Fold this sequence. Notes:
Oligomer: single chain
Shape: globular
Distance between the termini: 73 Å
Helix content: over 70%
Amino acid sequence: MGVCRKLLVFMALVGSLGAQSQTGVTAQLDAKETQLADLYADYWRNEYQIARGSESLSSRPIQERIRKVISDEQFLRRLKAAQFRDPLLKRRRNLFLEEAAYTKISNDEKLTAIVEDNAVPGWGR
Length: 125
């Protein structure tokens, strides 16, 4: 009986540690999505003002901040490793990872050239 009890306690501890770890990833994902929503809102407000003729504005600093939020390698590794049961969390995870991959490709000249050359006939260089 003592061995079974110890095994149950061990399984409960391991399960709670896994849940805490995923809760941490979920909280980070929530925070990053909120940050990105705010940054994209700032970006589009800036772009609107630029389109209306404001020459003193630039969206480059906001774009850099967006890239920094999306390209957090430590978070991306944790997010890739996370195994969510909730279909909504799975979808959010996949969307964030897809955006991170897109950001990585679009900010690397060599990768961008490869994608452009192979994506649509007649598009490349």
